[in-house]
Design a protein that fits this description.
There is one protein chain. The protein has ten helices and eleven strands. By secondary structure, the protein is α/β, with parallel strands linked by helices. It has two domains: 176 residues, HUPs (Rossmann fold); 92 residues, Pantoate-beta-alanine ligase, C-terminal domain (Pantoate--beta-alanine Ligase, Chain: A,domain 2). A six-stranded parallel β-sheet has the order 1-6-5-4-7-8, with helices on both faces. A three-stranded antiparallel β-sheet has the order 9-10-11, covered by helices on one side. Strands 2-3 form a two-stranded antiparallel sheet. Helix 6 crosses helix 7 and helix 9 packs antiparallel against helix 10. The radius of gyration is 20 Å and the shape is globular.
Length: 294
């Protein structure tokens, strides 16, 4: 008896490495797609995990074609940060994207994104100057805004999908698209978490076993803080409790803050607007961020 036919492996996505190849693949002509099919962009730095793939799945529901960019952007890393050791897993990433039937992978080199003589950079304000990530990584949002603007112009998407885990970044990118009148919609997707609450991040691979066991405290402390605020506790007191909980777990805290969910301005009373709780803290050599709504 003949054996069962082996399943056909998923066809790999087309990989573009130059702007001209990308536009040819997408069928772009003088800034317009040559057919009526919509395009969704999922910007990533690779080292893909289930959270990234959830963004891809959402993108597939929102557009006819999906482009995933993989580019570890050097301009958003400071001199003392982990650009050199940021995980790069190209083969695994491509296999994962093939499994999701992604149409195009946009994988430029640094020389393509920042060719010799490159001299234009964006300097975002508003949510980029909220005193959160920008306080500790003052270079970060200029690098993010510049590379994201380039990605938007290169791919010309109808929608772009970003995760809410990088909440301040999401607000910066949303404002960028609105302020520059870019013809696309930025969509924030919910944070993907492990069963114990830890937000998925490519940097989680840096955690030792002991650090990994402590890491879910970030989400647990924020969740308890949100519950206390909803129950009427003074916001500053609830945030202090969360800060103490996180510190006792072995973290060095950069910030634990209650901010207005739209503007990221400091917020002191629940009635003053929708609240977002945000945290950034380091355990061992790994810096983690997280946030939740109240």
């Amino acid at each position: 008896m003949a054996g069962k036919k082996a399943p056909t492996p998923p066809k790999g996505p087309r990989v573009a490495r130059t702007v001209s190849a990308l536009r040819k693949t997408l069928g772009a002509d003088v800034g317009k797609h040559t057919d009526a099919r919509t395009v969704a962009l999922v910007p990533t730095m690779g080292a893909l995990h289930a959270g990234h793939l959830a963004l891809v799945k959402l993108a597939k529901r929102r557009a006819d074609r999906v482009v995933v960019s993989i580019f570890v952007n050097p301009t958003q890393f400071g001199p003392a940060e982990d650009f050199g050791r940021y995980p790069r897993t190209w083969d695994a990433d491509l296999k994962a994207l093939a499994g999701e039937n992604v149409d195009v992978v946009w994988a430029p080199t640094a020389d393509v994104m920042y060719p010799q003589g490159f001299a234009t950079r964006l300097a975002p304000e508003g949510p980029a100057l909220a005193g959160l990530e920008d306080k500790f990584r003052p270079h970060f949002f200029g690098g993010v805004a510049t590379v994201v603007a380039k990605l938007f112009l290169q791919c010309r998407p109808d929608v772009a999908i970003f995760g809410q885990k990088d909440y301040q970044q999401l607000q910066v990118v949303t404002r960028l698209a609105r302020d520059l009148d870019l013809p696309l919609k930025v969509i924030g997707a919910p944070t993907w978490r492990e069963k114990d609450g830890l937000a998925l991040s490519s940097r989680n691979v840096y955690l030792s076993a002991q650090e990994r066991a402590a890491a879910p405290v970030l989400h647990a402390a924020l969740s308890a803080c949100a519950q206390e605020i909803r129950s009427g506790k003074i916001i500053a007191q609830a945030v202090d409790t969360a800060r103490n909980t996180i510190s006792r777990a072995g973290f060095i805290i950069d910030y634990v803050e209650a901010r207005h969910a739209a503007t990221l301005a400091p917020i002191h009373q629940q009635k003053d607007g929708p609240i977002r709780l945000l945290v950034a803290a380091k355990i061992g050599t790994t810096r983690l961020i997280d946030n939740i709504p109240v």
